[in-house]
TrEMBL record:
Assembly and oligomerization: Heterododecamer (2C3:3R2) of six catalytic PyrB chains organized as two trimers (C3), and six regulatory PyrI chains organized as three dimers (R2).
UniProt name for this protein: Aspartate carbamoyltransferase
PROSITE patterns: CARBAMOYLTRANSFERASE
SUPFAM superfamilies: Aspartate/ornithine carbamoyltransferase
Coiled coil (residue ranges): none
Originating organism: Methylomonas aurea
Record domain Aspartate/ornithine carbamoyltransferase carbamoyl-P binding: where: 14-159
Similarity comment: Belongs to the aspartate/ornithine carbamoyltransferase superfamily. ATCase family.
Record HAMAP family: Asp_carb_tr
Residues holding L-aspartate: K94, R179, R234
GO molecular function: aspartate carbamoyltransferase activity
Keywords: Pyrimidine biosynthesis, Transferase
Function: Catalyzes the condensation of carbamoyl phosphate and aspartate to form carbamoyl aspartate and inorganic phosphate, the committed step in the de novo pyrimidine nucleotide biosynthesis pathway.
Catalytic activity: carbamoyl phosphate + L-aspartate = N-carbamoyl-L-aspartate + phosphate + H(+)
Length: 320
């Protein structure tokens, strides 16, 4: 259902809501398109006219540092006009519904909504409601999906490892509440990695983990053995409605990434984290700032990858 909603009849991206249903060819096209934008930050004029005349609205109902700013920068570099809605000061606080907000912005002839929302399915809902010329990009919905984050992570992995075949990837921490992990798992499997391991206490793994195409492991020494990529996740305390852990210090002792634990991975393994990082909770500072960390490269790559996704959805034109 979502696959059809986000693709045109010709199989091109109309919206970008989830990795689910997207094939390797399309994901590779996103990575290749991003590659063409990656050097732009070095240019004196950091702009291309691909979205000149288009109006993009950033609708962030949840806080964000990286995603919102890199979307804004990406839109600006594509020469689009960008509106950043200040949700705290908008009529949402006076009880206006999400749909009414969308209808009013639509009346201003906008071309794209970039949506972050605490409710799973919010971006999908908006994509179903908007006029045919408008594209919707999911910038994170509840615990469901964060597909542009997953794509910038795939881009960063490809930059360092060149190909996905044969790679062993470990995703560590709060898998249960992580929209990033869900999108990463779908992307890694679609791109053909050898193995995706999820390392977490049983309380932080989803009940349906066995259907997700991953190997669940509850021990860092076992899970990190010989992996090429280690992806650390934050404890998503804002989504925890009961006690999932004895304490943060106990979590760090068992599942926090330290230099000693990282020794279990391959010597050239890269360390990733979508951010924001909580030092001393899921990752030691010496690892986050260490030679194997590519955490800030992920942020840089976010601009090029979001430029690729925005230009591809706008290019498709027409209806889904
Ligand atoms: N990775 C990520 O989504 O970070 P922000 O919440 O800062 O956007």
């Amino acid at each position: 259902m979502t696959r059809h909603l986000q693709l045109t009849e010709q199989g091109r991206l109309k919206h970008f809501l989830t990795i689910e249903g997207l094939d390797r060819e399309l994901l590779t096209e996103i990575l290749d398109t991003a590659e063409s934008f990656v050097g732009m930050s070095e240019h004196q004029v950091k702009k291309v006219p691909l979205l000149r005349g288009k109006t993009i609205v950033n609708l962030f109902f949840e806080n964000s540092t990286r995603t919102r700013t890199t979307f804004e920068l990406a839109a600006t570099r594509l020469s689009a006009d960008v509106l950043n809605m200040d949700i705290a000061r908008s009529a949402t606080s006076k009880g206006e519904s999400l749909l009414d907000t969308i209808r009013n912005l639509e009346a201003m002839q906008v071309d794209m909504f970039v949506v972050r929302h605490a409710l799973s399915g919010a971006a999908h809902f908006i994509a179903q409601q908007v006029a045919p010329h408008i594209s919707v990009i999911n910038a994170g919905d509840g615990q469901h999906a964060h597909p542009t984050q997953a794509m910038l992570d795939m881009f960063t992995i490809r930059q360092h490892k060149k190909q996905f075949e044969g790679l062993k990837v470990a995703i560590v921490g709060d898998i249960l509440h992580s929209r990033v992990a869900r999108s990463q798992i779908l992307a890694l499997n679609a791109l053909g990695v050898a193995e995706v391991r999820v390392i977490a206490p049983k309380t932080l793994l989803p009940a349906q983990v066995k259907t997700m195409g991953v190997t669940p492991i509850h021990d860092m020494d076992e899970g990190l053995a010989d992996v090429d990529v280690v992806i650390m996740l934050r404890l998503q305390k804002e989504r925890m409605n009961s006690a999932f852990l004895p304490s943060e210090s106990e979590f760090f002792r068992c599942f926090g990434l330290t230099e000693a634990k990282l020794q279990r991975a391959k010597p050239d393994a890269i360390v990733m984290h979508p951010g924001p990082i909580n030092r001393g909770v899921e990752i030691a500072s010496s690892v986050a700032d260490g030679p194997q960390s590519v955490i800030l490269q992920q942020v840089s790559n976010g601009v090029a990858v979001r430029m690729a996704i925005m230009s591809m959805t706008m290019r498709s034109g027409g209806t889904a």
